[in-house]
């Protein structure tokens, strides 16, 4: 976290601008991981005055480091924000896991598009999720070093490069983005953004970058700071001393601590002995924080162990939480510190957030299972868009009782279970075979839906 941010000793209650949470999305192989690595790498190289700190699930790049990377583009005195917090796991799967009630947890996103490959199915899927969650984003037109005419010794790309990437990305943007986003953006966007990074006029800017050479990274960070400062102030004004709210990123086993959760805290402060409520597979779990763990710097791990315990953590931050009874905790589920409130009220709040997503329609339709609340939500919404009805949607592996639900469908095409990122339990496969229930599973949403639609079409053709 930036040094300017209070942690546990500040007793005054006041709204502070927390660090904007940034997610990286895009099609597979378009360079999401490389881009994050490059940003982290630049931050480590440049970060002499304010080193980047170790976090769970995210990398915080403080404002002073951003301004060192961006040079004259970012004057730290122009910004009230402490920096940027990048979620380490790229992809829209993790993005949709990161949800807070009524929207996405990430404040801002980078949509990575390979300039040679243009918009691909997962790019469109990502745009769809970003539009639905109303998340401001910018497009990183990546791999410009591979465009003919690229001149790595010259900071500015040659005109040929600009033309090449403009043709490709801008055409795709025009064809796809306008249609998908509609009136979300009333600004004309174009690759000209590169030359106008200082006026932050556009909702959707295109920044040519190379995750390989680092070209364009300063501009990307500059535009992101500008966007955050301009659009996100309201959401990011949090009472850092209030009770924490967060989201489970992952349920993990941590040596010496048993089952723990990796979480992103987006509001308030969590302390080492707080009572918390965590969303679980069977409903809210009430427990007490045993330890808050932060990774140690590499050079200390050998002598000191992998994690250090901290007393308190303020938003926005990624932290590992050790507490009893977390075995049932669920990725994508909310975490709340109870604080002065009545614990039943907090349980109700968590329950309501969980119920928002687990769907039980009672109508004729397919059964849907997913590994996290976020992916369940993303899948359910894709199915809705495709007008595929759902009878029940839940988090968890495909179990015999799901087959029992599916087999009651009248129409054969609904005697189906769609699983995203989940396992099928052995007795469930056996039972499905016995009862004539089809199970589709995949870890890419559009593929899963495509496979199911192909199956339905085939069946219909066969019946004609
Ligand atoms: P992800 O699947 O979106 O996370 O993509 P990766 O970051 O794993 O990148 C996929 C491949 O593209 C890897 O082989 C990277 O080295 C390569 N790559 C990523 N960014 C760039 C870039 O800017 N220039 C070049 N030349 N290669 C890149």
Automatic annotation (TrEMBL):
Coiled-coil blocks: none
Any one GO CC term of the record: cytoplasm
Binding site residues for GTP: 26-33, 88-92, 142-145
Keyword GTP-binding assigned: yes
GO molecular function, one term: GTP binding
Keywords assigned: GTP-binding, Initiation factor, Nucleotide-binding, Protein biosynthesis
Domain spans labelled Tr-type G: 17-232
Protein purpose: Function in general translation initiation by promoting the binding of the formylmethionine-tRNA to ribosomes. Seems to function along with eIF-2.
Assigned protein family: Belongs to the TRAFAC class translation factor GTPase superfamily. Classic translation factor GTPase family. IF-2 subfamily.
Protein name: Probable translation initiation factor IF-2
Phylogenetic classification of the source organism: Archaea, Methanobacteriati, Methanobacteriota, Stenosarchaea group, Halobacteria
Range within the parent protein: 1 to 464 of 604
